[in-house]
Amino acid sequence: MGKKKTKARAKTDSINPSTKASNVLELSQHSDNGSVLVVDATNLSTSKPNSSSTVNKYEKKSFMSHKIAKVTGDFDAGSSKKSNKKEDDVDEQNDKELFKLINDTNLIESLSKFLLFSLFNWTFKSYQALINIAIALNPDLDVNNMSGKERLKLQQRKLASLGLIGSDPTPKAPTNIYFGMQNKRIKRAKAEVTDFQNRGIFSKSVKSQIYEKHHVSKSLGANKNSRVNRLNPNRGLKASVGKFKNGILYVDTTFSLLIKKPLPHSLNEETLLSITTLN
After folding, report:
1. Into how many domains does the chain fold?
2. 271 Cβ neighbours under 8 A, 6+ residues apart
3. Going by C-beta distance under 8 Å and a sequence separation of 6 or more, which residues neighbour residue 104?
4. Which of the residue ranges 40-44, 186-190, 213-217 would you say has the lowest mean pLDDT?
5. Which of 117, 120, 192, 201 is most buried (CB neighbours < 10 A)?
């Protein structure tokens, strides 16, 4: 009925017996007409695998894979290496970002402790804490060779980049431009204060926060009739003792007597009585 199939064997007369199992590969494929194709693999080298043998190894693995995409797809020997390198680069970048985030978090914590401590005492420990903060800002920077002002500038730049403080509010500018910028900041701060007052959520702490945000001191943002201006009026010529009125300096008799007769180092009851009786 059917045609008898004959087995084809590779000639192994010229092959060493020790290499028969490893070098001889019998592959048989039946074509459409039923003939048999014989492949002799005796020329395979037993040395270290080169690029072609590596490709054949990966082709064999992909052929035996359970995924159809690997069986039918073309194999690229360098694709796995490239993909691994790309993954390593991505992992390295993620590690850098994570390290930077941890450094920034530690910086904020150390700075908050440093500010609370420096409000009460300024000692060598607080100065050393400031140096540690500067080192945390940039580990590659040689902070030991920097002056104190350079360390503070470095710290302020980093804190400004983190958004903890504002940028430098007073850049170098001509006088007329500088005062114009200052007036604009005062107007913006006053407008925000008025807005908070109208909404009913105004307090002294909110006011100080607004002035600090706009880099305006309370004395600059004060009104003309405020207590600061009443205590420090701009009168031009001022005297340390007495009062000016109509161009005349009026001095109390007590001060005039003290000028003539200097006050002794130790004030006792007799000297005080003598001063009061002279009045």
Report:
1. 4
2. 263, 264
3. 162
4. 40-44
5. 192
Please tell me the distance from the alpha carbon of residue 168 to that of residue 152, in angstroms, as a whole number.
13
In terms of Cβ atoms closer than 10 Å to its own Cβ (0-12, 13-18, 19+), residue 205 is exposed
Is residue 86 located within the same domain as residue 110? yes
Domain-embedded: residue 116: yes
Burial call 69-93: b when 16+ CB within 10 Å, e when fewer = eeeeeeeeeeeeeeeeeeeeeeeee
Q: Where are the beta strands (DSSP E) in the chain?
A: 27-30, 36-39, 243-245, 248-250
Number of residues assigned to the chain: 279
Hey, which of 70-84, 110-124, 165-179, 196-210 has the most confident mean pLDDT? Answer: 196-210
Nearest to 137 by CA among 167, 111, 168: 111
- Token readout for 263 is 């006050």
If you write DSSP's letter for every residue of 191-210 in order, what string do you get?
A: HHHHHHHHHT---HHHHHHH
Same domain for 66 and 31: yes
Same domain, 90 and 38: no
Q: Which of 107, 157, 162 is nearest to 132 (CA)?
A: 107
**Residue 156, class by beta-carbon neighbours within 10 Å (0-12 exposed, 13-18 middle, 19+ buried)?**
middle
The Cα–Cα gap between 134 and 136 comes to: 5
The two tokens of residue 189 are 């701060």
Q: With 70 as the cut, is the pLDDT of residue 248 above it? A: yes
Residue 247's domain spans which residues?
A: 243-278
